[in-house]
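Intended use. Records like the one below are meant for learning the mapping from a protein sequence to its folded structure. Do not use them to infer anything beyond what is encoded.
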Amino acid sequence: QVQLVESGGGLVQAGDSLRLSCAASGRTSSSYTVAWFRQAPGKEREFVAAITSGGVSTYYADSVKGRFTISSNNAKNTVYLQMNSLKPEDTAVYYCAAGPRGAGYNTWGQGTQVTVSS
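Structure written out for the chain above:
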């Protein structure tokens, strides 16, 4: 059973940067995808970015392309989300999710709050 723990959220000003971390523990499949989602108050959860095992491929929502970068450190079983040029509309709870590649996400973290003030 895989467990995911997010960290790195906080309160920042518009234009600042933050790096979120998603640490995985437990047994993982050999081929998997890890993604970041976010949910703002009163809104649906939305996809932010994803990375396949080994960092072979990355995917981004249009709203974060050019500002956010997803990466992984396999030795530490950790996936990162570097967020630059943050905007107030990036304010949300950010969740890490993982699952077998091509089969959706079956494991979710507890979320970390990101608040961007104008």
